[in-house]
Automatic annotation (TrEMBL):
Residues 365-599 form the ABC transporter domain. The lineage of its organism: Bacteria, Bacillati, Actinomycetota, Actinomycetes, Kitasatosporales. Keywords: ATP-binding, Cell membrane, Membrane, Nucleotide-binding, Transmembrane, Transmembrane helix, Transport. CDD domains: ABC_6TM_LmrA_like. This is ABC transporter ATP-binding protein. It comes from Streptomyces longispororuber. Belongs to the ABC transporter superfamily. Lipid exporter (TC 3.A.1.106) family. The chain crosses the membrane at residues 31-52, 64-90, 143-162, 168-187, 254-273, 285-306. It comes from the Bacteria.
């Protein structure tokens, strides 16, 4: 059987051991120290029955056994202290392994190709960082060392039992072997059930995130019970898998305990008969019984460690799948990749920046015969060609599904064209790193993103060290003074989760301020006026006229009132540019644009002048 990456899965116990050993690669010194401490504690424990034997034999002969009792007490205390220190080292090592895994997962998930997010649910990916790594921590902090030390301590106890009475050991071995057969038959089932449980927990997290992320919609449509039922099915699935895991584990533990207790009773009965027959001494029988009882802990730890490893491998399988998902490269922006125009210290008067930047005629953005489809069999863009000059505003218009938002996704390098060329400042995008392309742009998306934090944190998200004067400048440009005055704390006022304390229009203006502060050479606006009233739309139009003196602006809008004053309008239809020009000319020359304008006027009379 193979995982989603095509690599064969090794479900054997040895495969689980080697995987666990590989996970601790950067913590071998801690593993060695913990193993040494655990073995030292176990050795102190193994010495105790021998001392107890001497106490019994010495007391039976009427000798002084008080010094031996003092030695026995010292051994007991030393074993407890050594074991406690060893356990702390193990737990710290386990936390270190999980920290490393979580860092790797977070870094990977934040850089996945957008197609990976299209195929995997966010809540499930989050569960791999939280729930799966927590289960894996138990494996690396306990299972490996418990397995090693359990085997070695059991071997030591068995060796001493051979030395005391080989016949009694044979009885113990037969009962333990029976338990081992039972445990081995249960391990595969435990791992499979654990995988199902972890997958169910991931699906549970994804469905819960889905419901909480759209909670207003859920409540307005009175869908709480339906969502609770949907999520409840995930809960039941996790419960069923968890119960099966518990059922198998509950059979495994008593099998080990019964085997050890059965062997203990056999030793007690048969050993007692051998003492009566003078085949062995009472001290020997006491020592053997102590070793037989002492064998319970290492054997139980060995079987428990193997079972825990099999459970943990189900979680690790999901972590590996996440780490193997395709990610964007993390190359930095090279000096040769930076925009050719000199950087502007901050937003200043248009005349100053215009004088500082002499355009050379090279477009800020150009698409030549670009083809693309999210599904190769269903193309969205079919040979799209247009350019965006270094100054001014270009608008993309067209019916829903014409490919407008897809253009933005390609410009942001979220996806790569299937064919054709995308140029930034005359340079092919494929010759630039993604970071270099994104350093040139800022985006105000239709789905405005506001993160939990202060208003200033949201505005300065792209430029965390921005000067206060620059922040105030974009606040004025985006008409956010009212929001600043309303919030307790002003710019330091905390916004709710997903910007819940802001209106839709205010969230859009926050996104606009964030984009302007980044001082892009190309500003992408996706429906910038969709949540604005007429007054604010007019104010934004004035702002955009100033911005077009600083950089190129590419805007998507269904409201033609937003784009009618654009320097150029590109009309998209079924993934192609079918017309290009200014509003007045397109009304008479482009049937597609005329149909859009007519429909807009029918819905909103007076919105679009007749030309």
């Amino acid at each position: 059987m193979s995982d989603t990456t095509g690599e064969p899965r090794d479900r054997s116990t040895w495969g689980a051991i080697t995987t666990t050993h590989r996970l601790t690669a950067g913590h071998r010194s801690s593993v060695a120290a913990a193993t040494a401490l655990t073995l030292a504690g176990s050795a102190l424990g193994l010495a105790q029955p021998l001392v107890a034997k001497n106490v019994v034999d010495t007391g039976g002969r009427g000798g002084a056994f008080w010094p031996l009792l003092a030695v026995l007490a010292a051994l007991f205390v030393a074993e407890a202290v050594t074991g406690a220190v060893g356990r702390f080292v193990l737990e710290r090592m386990g936390e270190g392994v999980v920290r490393q895994l979580r860092h790797g997962l977070v870094a990977r998930l934040l850089r996945l190709e957008m197609r990976a997010y299209d195929e995997h649910r966010g809540g499930d990916l989050i569960a791999r960082v939280t729930a799966d790594t927590t289960l894996l921590r138990e494996v690396v902090s306990q299972a490996l060392v418990d397995l090693v030390t359990g085997v070695l301590v059991a071997a030591g106890a068995i060796a001493l039992m051979v030395w005391i009475d080989p016949l009694l050991l044979l009885l113990v071995a037969l009962t333990v072997a029976t338990a081992a057969v039972v445990v081995t038959s249960l391990l595969k089932g435990i791992r499979a059930a654990s995988e199902r449980m972890q997958n169910s927990l991931g699906a549970l997290a994804a469905d819960l995130e889905r419901a909480l992320g759209a909670l207003p919609m859920v409540r307005v449509h009175r869908a709480e019970e339906r969502e609770a039922e949907r999520i409840g099915r995930r809960v039941e699935s996790a419960y069923t898998a968890g119960v099966r895991t518990a059922k198998l584990a509950s059979v495994m533990s008593p099998a080990v305990e019964l085997a050890v207790q059965g062997s203990f009773l056999l030793v007690l009965v048969i050993g007692g008969l051998r003492v009566d027959g003078s085949a062995t001494s009472l001290g020997d029988l006491v020592a053997f019984l102590l070793y037989a009882s002492y064998l319970v802990l290492p054997l139980s730890s060995v079987f428990r460690a193997v079972g825990l490893m099999q459970r943990g491998m189900g979680a690790y399988q999901r972590i590996e799948q996440a780490l193997s998902l395709p990610a964007e490269p993390t190359e930095p922006v090279k000096p040769s990749e930076r925009p050719s125009s000199p950087a502007r210290p901050r937003w200043t008067a248009p005349e100053a920046t215009a004088a500082a930047q002499a355009p050379d005629g090279t477009p800020a953005l150009a698409l030549h015969d670009v083809h693309f489809g999210y599904d190769p069999d269903r193309p969205v863009l079919r040979g799209l060609t247009f350019t965006v000059p270094r100054r001014g505003q270009v608008a993309l218009v067209g019916r829903s599904g014409a490919g407008k938002s897809t253009v933005f996704a390609l410009v942001a390098r979220f996806y790569e064209p299937d064919s054709g060329v995308l140029l930034f400042d005359g340079r092919p995008a494929t010759g630039l790193s993604r970071a270099a392309c994104r350093a040139r742009i800022a985006v105000v998306d239709q789905d405005t993103h506001v993160v939990h934090g202060t208003l200033r944190d949201n505005i300065a998200y792209a430029v965390p060290d921005a000067a206060d004067a620059d922040v105030r400048r974009v606040v004025e440009l985006a008409q956010l003074e009212g929001v600043v005055s309303r919030l307790r704390g002003g710019l330091s006022g905390v916004l709710g989760e997903r910007g819940a304390t802001l209106s839709a229009g205010e969230r859009q203006r926050v996104a606009l301020a964030r984009a302007l502060l980044a001082r892009p050479s190309l500003l992408l606006l996706d429906e910038p006026t969709s949540h604005l009233d007429a007054i604010n739309e007019s104010a934004l139009t004035t702002v955009m006229k100033d911005v077009t003196q600083e950089c190129a602006v590419l805007v998507i809008a269904h409201r033609l009132s937003t784009v009618q004053h654009a320097d150029r309008i590109v009309v998209l239809d079924h993934g192609r540019a079918v017309a290009s020009g200014v509003h007045r000319d397109l009304l008479s020359t482009s049937p597609a644009y005329h149909a859009l304008a007519t429909h807009q006027m029918l819905r909103h009379p007076g919105t679009v002048p007749p030309g």
